[in-house]
From TrEMBL:
InterPro entries per the UniProt record, alphabetical: FliS (IPR003713), FliS_sf (IPR036584)
A Pfam family this chain is assigned to: FliS
Name used for this protein in its record: Flagellar secretion chaperone FliS
Keywords, in A-Z order: Bacterial flagellum biogenesis, Cell projection, Chaperone, Cilium, Cytoplasm, Flagellum
Location in or out of the cell: Cytoplasm, Cytosol
PANTHER family recorded: FLAGELLAR SECRETION CHAPERONE FLIS
Organism: Pectinatus brassicae
Similarity comment: Belongs to the FliS family.
Gene3D superfamilies per the UniProt record, alphabetical: Flagellar protein FliS (1.20.120.340)
Predominant localisation class: cytoplasm
Swiss-Prot/TrEMBL GO biological process terms: bacterial-type flagellum assembly; bacterial-type flagellum-dependent cell motility
Length: 130
């Protein structure tokens, strides 16, 4: 059982090391969504420590997204306040076990993820046609 866990971790590590910056961003969005879902689930199960741990990981993802922005671009200046809002919503949701706030944060991340994924597809099609 431990060998399977080690193999899965090695595979994930290799995925991260070989991923493009665009794919890493998509992976961060997916991770945030997963951690928020876990946090909400654990709140419902009254597992406060597990919920806190998952929501702290979601907060870490938002910090990573904020720190990776290149503020020379206008889009980064527009994304930063949105990421910051999501980050703060996660904090409030975590501290107060407020599922509504966590759902709001998750909806925003899902929207960002879906938009990012569509942009990646369009960029890929543009590369193929040139």
């Amino acid at each position: 059982m431990q060998n399977a866990s080690y193999t899965a971790q090695a595979y994930r590590r290799q995925q991260i090391l070989t991923a493009s910056p665009e794919m890493l961003t998509l992976m961060l969005y997916n991770g945030a969504i997963r951690f928020i879902n876990e946090g909400i689930k654990f709140i419902g199960e009254e597992e406060k420590e597990k919920s806190n741990a998952s929501l702290l990981r979601a907060q870490d993802v938002m910090i990573e997204l904020m720190s990776s922005l290149d503020m020379e671009y206008e889009i980064a200046k527009e994304l930063y306040p949105l990421y910051d809002y999501i980050y703060r919503a996660l904090i409030v949701g975590n501290l107060a076990n407020n599922i509504e706030k966590l759902d709001e944060a998750k909806e925003l991340v899902v929207e960002l993820r879906d938009t990012w994924h569509e942009a990646m597809k369009k960029a890929g099609k543009a590369k193929q046609s040139s």
